[in-house]
């Protein structure tokens, strides 16, 4: 699994201007099963996306499609989930 941290480097007004296409991008990758969860940070300095364990090059290609590349930096951390609550057992690796 990947944890992707988005950190805004542009004013929130510029972020807001790209919100609709960013949400469309999120919806596309939720629909095809790549994204598991997503949300805003509090305070609103960026966001977080949880993604399935896919090929890293494919993930990088997906992230490059996000309209927020114009307003946010991405920090990607791969997590090898070894323990999970029952509701999240599908995230565990082999």
TrEMBL record:
Q: Name one Pfam family in it.
A: YCII
What the entry lists under InterPro entries is as follows: Dimeric_a/b-barrel, YCII
Q: Which residues form the YCII-related domain?
A: 1-79
Task: Supply the PANTHER family for this chain.
Answer: GSR2449 PROTEIN (PTHR37828), YCII-RELATED DOMAIN-CONTAINING PROTEIN (PTHR37828:SF1)
* Similarity annotation: Belongs to the YciI family.
- What this protein is called in its record is Uncharacterized conserved protein YciI, contains a putative active-site phosphohistidine
Q: Which organism is it from?
A: Candidatus Pantoea floridensis
State the taxonomy lineage: Bacteria, Pseudomonadati, Pseudomonadota, Gammaproteobacteria, Enterobacterales
């Amino acid at each position: 699994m990947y944890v992707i941290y988005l950190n805004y480097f542009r004013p929130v007004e510029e972020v807001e201007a790209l919100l609709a296409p960013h949400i469309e991008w999120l919806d596309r990758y939720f629909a095809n099963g790549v994204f598991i969860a997503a949300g805003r940070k509090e305070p609103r300095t960026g966001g977080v996306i949880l993604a399935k364990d896919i090929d890293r090059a494919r993930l990088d290609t997906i992230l490059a499609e996000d309209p927020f590349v114009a307003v946010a930096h991405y920090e990607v951390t791969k997590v090898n989930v070894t323990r999970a609550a029952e509701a999240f057992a599908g995230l565990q690796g082999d």
